[in-house]
Amino acid sequence: MVKKISSAEYIYTLQFDYIETYSLLRGAEYEAFMSKDDEEFKNLHERKKRGAILIPGEEKRYLELFKPKEDPVLINDKNEFHWSSEKIGFFKRSEPRAQTLIEILNTEIDEVPKWRCPPVFRDALVFYDGNQQIVSVLNICFGCENLMNKPLGFLIADSKTYSLLRQFLTDLGHKIEPAN
């Protein structure tokens, strides 16, 4: 069984020189991309629901449309940044903003969010070393309050961590949807 680590353990173990912040899966271009096949999928899905048998070409297309279109993280397994990503912030470890971020991730854990929805990582932090090599990527979903790092998996963080992170990234220019 994989041991989950806390956001404090995560940030404590990182050796980094600077951080970039990214926003992704937002904007008109992304929305247009996601909705372009919606009508076709709805049509095929409705026919299947009514018991219609799709011809082989339609069944193949239905299965293609049923799969997620995107890898839901900032950087995929080929080390490519998501096409919709936009770099928003940059700061060195020596700057006060980095210290603020470290303090946020060190928030004591009293209440862990327990949402049951699948995460949609629309924000991310990328940690770099002095040679401009990526040390780690922290994907953030504010909708269901999840932090995820490949290969570590999901991190444990307090509910307050997410509200502090939301404010921190909003102050940097991230266009994060208001909390429910």
Quick rundown:
The protein is 34% helix and 19% strand. The protein is α+β, with helices and mostly antiparallel strands. Helix 3 packs across helix 4 and helix 5 (96-105) runs antiparallel to helix 6.
Can you walk me through this structure?
It is a single chain. By secondary structure, this protein is of the alpha+beta class. 34% of the residues lie in helices and 19% in strands. The protein has helices at residues 7-13, 28-35, 38-49, 56-66, 96-105, 159-172, and strands at residues 18-23, 86-92, 123-128, 134-141, 146-149, 153-155. A six-stranded antiparallel β-sheet has the order 2-1-3-4-5-6, covered by helices on one side. Strand 5 (146-149) and strand 6 form a beta hairpin. It starts with 6 loop residues before the first helix and ends in an 8-residue tail after the last helix.
